[in-house]
């Protein structure tokens, strides 16, 4: 090895990452590979500059890291369906307080509604939200981060910044990545869930205990650092952002509206009139002007038709009334002419 070490050094000086197998080929090494790999392992650090990791320190109210966690657990969604909906996770940078909630889908409407639910629950706004390249948030295009239209409107209403991590850079949001792992290893094992609402109820109860434990990174309990973190955050806006599913349409004859992948019944008395649909994570509401004409719990299953019993009875009564409203014939007087008039028009000839 001493004889070929100068050649190895020359190759590593030009290509520090060159594999030992390639080095063996270049120098014509024909002996055992173990001794060559050991020598390359000793020499490589000399030609590879160190890459120390920087320790990031967060100031109170500075930021929160966000991510979607997909728990490997089947959750009954209703109508005989079972799924694994995403869980929106947020971690406050300074205090390390974790907030999380299962949402129906990762669509922009549900994601933004989930973000607003968590932020309003905090009672304050971090000055920056850190996200990876989630489709409903934004992505890197042509070397630049670009937020979606929905996220731009959401961010603008709140008056905060949104940072998109570069692709393949999980270290930028290591806090929430570790929180996802913590949820999977400490919250999930041994639990069963009867519905998404049951999942969220168990999760919120567990988060109370999780945020009261001593965090290894700060050597303090997140709840003890929460007050200065919360005090430095921005206040909630006087007008909440427009989130969730929204639509304005003329109600069709079948008096149903679609939200996500399901149809919800509406009072048939407003058929052919314009209605406004507003759906969040929990409820679907339909208004005709200022009048509430439908309200349903949000269905997490897909391809379902949800019918209010009162709407069905009203539609049945209206159909029956429509069938009875038939047009009756109007009696009118018709002149009866003398048969002789026809004889005169026929030239006085009467057919035999």
Structure notes:
This protein is of the alpha+beta class. It folds into three domains: 5-47; 64-231, 2-Layer Sandwich (Nucleotidyltransferase, domain 5); 245-324, no CATH class. It is 34% helix and 21% strand. The chain is built from ten helices and 16 strands. The protein has helices spanning 5-14, 20-27, 33-47, 108-122, 149-158, 174-187, 196-210, 222-231, 309-324, 339-345; strands spanning 64-69, 75-78, 81-83, 87-92, 98-102, 128-131, 138-141, 144-147, 161-164, 245-250, 256-259, 262-265, 274-279, 283-288, 291-297, 305-306. It is elongated, with a radius of gyration of 35 Å. It starts with a helix and ends in a 7-residue tail after the last helix. The mean pLDDT is 91.
Which terms would index this structure?
352 residues, alpha+beta, Nucleotidyltransferase, domain 5, 3 domains, 5-stranded mixed sheet, 4-stranded antiparallel sheet, 10 helices, 16 strands
Brief summary of the model shown:
The protein is of the alpha+beta class and 352 residues long. Helix content is 34%, strand content 21%.
